[in-house]
Q: What sequence folds into this?
């Protein structure tokens, strides 16, 4: 179809309305990043000690791409338009006037970078130097949507400087010396690797519920980032949340909406914001604990946890895609009346996540609704 003949419309207000257009990531060229203040990768058990960087093995990449391609083809078969990013050479060094970073990362998880709120797609700041330029892989698509949809609001959050001021530079070294109790104290104090020198956030720390957005403060999203989002979306109610977890990154394996009135909560990572439980209760939302994950350890080279079991793509309020090995999670949702579509995607984990991470909404039907008419003052 000629570009101008497509009916492109950018709009998505929540995680569950009928999905019509989505971006699915690619595994091509994904790197184990070189160390930087925000993040250190090490897998001594696989012969990759701290400081090693390089492209993930080609056979893993091929398998991941096969699963991503099958996932995309399944969505297209169901009438959903699927777009893909344009990979660039992620093994190249990148620099700004302030710093130089030996490698980039990849383009598997569009959810981390692109936040769709209504007719807007917002490019997140990101907080890793290796991910500073990641928005470039989505630019061909965003330029196209801009041409094809006169109402598309294309926005980018201020690019952070990411100098030494942005980080507690010895954080990860100290982290390794802390007991579990000490790590949890840091969580209670919201004391992670980012300082508050400038706003930082990843788009995947946001869960969208119409007028209400839950934003997780985490190792990649600071309070200033949440404040920036609050000021950027004045018609939304932004709720800052944290969970019982020592190095949180992204809300989409911790707390996920399923449909109006029903949300799925991680069975280990409990909400540490009492107001959050109250908000859901007051508005008659039921929160259920996720099922037991199928895997008992992370995938090889994966920085994501086994809780990718709850990282799902919802196609409409009755239909949900779940990773195909997550039998118990599928059964739980089946009992709740969902049509569950099993999608093999575990081999993609090392490239940046699961079904939710691997996608970014472009268009869902529906309008902006208020699912929480009873608010909690100050939250
Ligand atoms: O909790 O393992 C998964 C989500 C990454 N986007 C986790 C993070």
A:
């Amino acid at each position: 179809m000629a570009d101008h003949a497509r009916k492109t419309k950018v709009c998505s207000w929540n995680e569950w309305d009928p999905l019509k257009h989505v971006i699915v990531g690619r595994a091509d060229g994904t790197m184990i990043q070189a160390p930087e203040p925000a993040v250190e990768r090490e897998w001594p058990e696989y012969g990759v000690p701290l400081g090693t960087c390089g492209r993930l093995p080609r056979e893993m990449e091929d398998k991941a791409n096969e699963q991503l391609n099958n996932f995309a083809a399944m969505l297209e078969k169901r009438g959903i338009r699927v777009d893909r990013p344009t990979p660039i050479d992620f093994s190249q060094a990148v620099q700004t006037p302030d710093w130089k970073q030996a490698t980039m990362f990849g383009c598997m998880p569009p959810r981390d970078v692109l936040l769709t709120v209504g007719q807007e797609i917002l490019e997140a700041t990101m907080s890793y130097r290796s991910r500073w330029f990641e928005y470039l892989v989505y630019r061909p698509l965003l330029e196209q949507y801009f041409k094809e949809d006169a109402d598309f609001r294309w926005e980018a959050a201020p690019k952070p400087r990411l100098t030494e001021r942005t980080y507690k530079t010895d954080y990860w070294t100290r982290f390794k010396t802390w007991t579990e109790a000490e790590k949890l104290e840091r969580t209670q104090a919201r004391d992670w690797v980012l300082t508050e020198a400038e706003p930082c956030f990843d788009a995947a720390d946001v869960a969208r519920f119409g007028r209400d957005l839950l934003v997780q403060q985490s190792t990649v999203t600071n309070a200033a980032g949440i404040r920036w989002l609050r000021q950027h979306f004045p018609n939304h109610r932004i709720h800052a949340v944290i969970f019982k977890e020592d190095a949180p990154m992204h809300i989409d394996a911790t707390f996920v909406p399923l449909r109006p009135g029903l949300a799925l909560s991680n069975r280990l990572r409990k909400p540490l914001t009492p107001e959050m439980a109250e908000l859901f209760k007051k508005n008659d939302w039921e929160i259920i604990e996720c099922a037991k994950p199928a895997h008992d350890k992370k995938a090889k080279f994966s920085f994501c946890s086994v809780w990718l079991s709850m990282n799902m793509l919802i196609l409409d309020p009755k239909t949900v895609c779940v990773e195909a090995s997550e039998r118990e999670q599928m059964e739980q949702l089946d009992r709740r009346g969902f049509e569950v579509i099993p999608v093999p995607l575990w081999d993609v984990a090392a490239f940046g996540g699961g079904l939710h991470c691997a996608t970014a909404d472009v268009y869902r039907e529906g309008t902006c609704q208020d699912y929480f008419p009873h608010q909690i003052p100050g939250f």
